[in-house]
Amino acid sequence: MDSAAEALARWAHELVPDAEDLALAQRSLVDTLAVTLAARDDDLVRISAGLPDAARWAAVGHVLDFDDLHMESTAHISVVCVPATLAAGGDARAYLAGAGVMARIGMALGWSHYASGWHATCTAGAPAAAACAAVALGLSREQIATAMALAVPAAGGVQRAFGSSGKSLQVGFAADAGVRAARLAAAGATADPTALDAWLRLVGGEPERIDVTGPAVPGGLAIKVFPCCYALQRPISALREQLPAPIAPAEVAEIEVRTPACTVQPLIHHRPNTGLQGKFSMEYAVATALLDPHPGFGSFTDRAVNRPEAQRLLKLVKVTEAAGGDWLLAGQVDITVTLADGTRHDVALQLPPGSPGRPPSEQDMTAKIADCGEDVPALLSDVDWRRAAEVLAEHLPGEVVHDQEKEPA
Length: 409
Known about the structure:
The chain has 409 residues and is of the alpha+beta class. The chain has helices at 4-14, 19-37, 43-47, 53-62, 78-87, 92-115, 120-123, 125-136, 141-151, 165-186, 194-202, 233-242, 275-278, 282-291, 302-305, 308-314, 362-371, 376-379, 385-395; strands at 252-260, 317-322, 333-339, 344-349.
């Protein structure tokens, strides 16, 4: 019987994408490039300047937390697989091969892996990036399996990094590790493919759950409407879509959020004081949904999070968690906003816009790309995989970092 790496490598090597797969790949390319370009002025660009292309592009692409998500694996697939593919000179087929590997490894890891505190984007991402790069380099199926095994030592990342630059940087490390592993396999490095199976079991996964049937990316990908953790897309949408307008924030006396416990797993910041922490705070998500016409980039800055009215509102939020569930869209979210005069407003939502069950329209995608920068729509007009690398190289140039010369003894 094939090992997990061998089964995935055979599938990736033989993949023939259909029209639906290719449409998903093109949407993923454009979405990932747009959110990466939107972060051109973020301080992480300077911080990551000395990293290789895959690491730098992935880290910057993830820092705004506006990139897509595979719901079944709770993994940000494209922000790993697009940079790894582009850094290795690949195309849509290479992206889809890695994305499919990442989805399947993430599903084999299961919810218990994520719920225990692992960052599945990194754990599933390193071997997936290896598959992207290996297919892009034209490696054999044996070499693809070797590359995935060589990426296992880098398959780490924890949720405690959420709300700091560590989150996006560890995503960059996973993408870079995969590209490095593929190049080593191309150069003749050897590895035991069953290392992937052994690692899966060590971190709570089940290699036997890997299923290479179905579309390239089973379940599709969720597109974010707001630049924050996916766990916040539903409560923000519920308040914006269903609350009567206008509600004066100063009149709010109490807010109760009722949701399955699994849906708040990544929301570790309850009293945020930075923009990055606000992206992982249920309390701040409620505040920005009540305060801002459209919670966008400006809503997740240090200044916005520390607004007195935002800090007042987030302290009024009580989160009641129901037991059960095994993904970020389990059940539904119910929110009650109580005003000072006793008036109650109840809202509830199961699927937020942009989720696979409520896919974004062409107009939604056009609006999102436009929000990412005045020049972004023109830069990404009819962009393909070859030109995409050129766009990133031009707008996110790296720096050659030399070791400082030692002082003479």
